[in-house]
From TrEMBL:
InterPro entries according to UniProt: AcCoA_carboxyl_beta, ClpP/crotonase-like_dom_sf, COA_CT_N, Malonate_beta
Transferase found in the keyword field: yes
Name the UniProt record assigns to this protein: Biotin-independent malonate decarboxylase subunit beta
Residues in the signal sequence: none
Record's keyword terms, sorted: Lyase, Transferase
Molecular function terms from GO: lyase activity
């Protein structure tokens, strides 16, 4: 292995654990993890279903500064249950956002960064997970009136299900080429609609439709960065410096909705067709 190759691997963001991702983003010496694994906040439901729990329930939350600005950060661990969210993990994220909200109400500007690597709600916890995601979404809407809430989607697990809606509520979204956001994942679409509709093994099609490059070109993402720690950190810092958007993407849905209503769903689309629809409308 050459020195250059080793440096590139060491600089990669995607392969870091959730805890290391937070440490890589925050200013040196400012990280203070909240509700650590030593607090042993495990899901009360997983063991009953034969699943070994994790002491942080797959979610790491912390506070610190990023480029000198106060932030709370929540990172989802993709290696635990596919990054799925249950009652405890979801409550941790919602609590971190509510902490930032209270700080702002006290006159202490505090933004939020969400490192989203998740398949959505944890099936073993079903409605409890959905309720937790709803609390996260409510907290984002309240907080983003004061300070930016920045979502980061970098890894191949992507951001799906209810958490993709959560991502859509963020003030700013940052993605790498490898990331994917979407309401339903490829395997779910294939299962429900058939392989002719969506072949989950066709990686070129999947990333062409939902990968970071496509989402950025479509205007659904604010920043497109390489898988590099410095690049991700610089992009988050840039979003923090922009302050609160005048209009959030989730409040400006009339134009994309009108474009989607033009689509002839009887025809299979590709990356080029999807980009045309999302940016200019369907070809008549």
């Amino acid at each position: 292995m050459t020195a250059t190759t080793q440096q590139r691997q060491q600089a990669g963001f995607i392969d870091l654990s959730a805890r290391k991702r937070i440490a890589a983003l925050l200013d040196a010496g400012t990280l203070h993890e909240l509700l650590t694994p030593f607090d042993r906040l495990t899901s009360p439901w997983l063991e009953r279903q034969g699943v070994v729990p994790q002491f942080d329930d797959g979610v790491v939350i912390a506070r610190g500064t990023l480029d000198g600005k106060a932030v709370v950060v929540a990172a989802i661990e993709a290696s635990f249950q596919g990054g799925s969210l249950g009652e405890v993990g979801g409550a941790k994220i919602a609590g971190a956002l509510e902490l930032a909200l209270e700080e702002n109400r006290r006159g202490n500007p505090t933004a939020a960064v969400l490192l989203l690597e998740t398949g959505g709600v944890r099936l073993q916890e079903a409605n409890l997970g959905l309720a937790a995601i709803a609390e996260i979404q409510s907290a984002i809407v309240a907080l983003r009136r004061y300070q930016p809430v920045i979502g980061v989607i970098t890894g191949p697990v992507g951001c799906f299900g209810g958490m993709s809606i959560t991502a859509g509520l963020c003030s700013y979204l940052i993605m790498t080429r490898e990331g994917r956001p979407g309401l339903n994942g490829p395997q779910v679409i294939e299962q429900e609609a058939g392989v002719a509709e969506y072949d989950s093994r066709d990686r070129a099609l999947i990333w062409g439709l939902t990968g970071g490059a496509q989402r950025h070109a479509s205007g659904l993402v604010d920043a497109f960065v390489d898988d590099d720690i410095a690049a991700v950190q610089a992009s988050v810092a840039d979003c923090l410096s922009r302050a609160v958007p005048q209009t959030h993407r989730s409040d400006d849905i009339a134009t994309p909705l009108a474009r989607l209503q033009q689509v002839d769903t009887r025809k299979q689309t590709d990356a080029t067709g999807a980009l045309q629809i999302l940016t200019q409308g369907a070809v008549q």
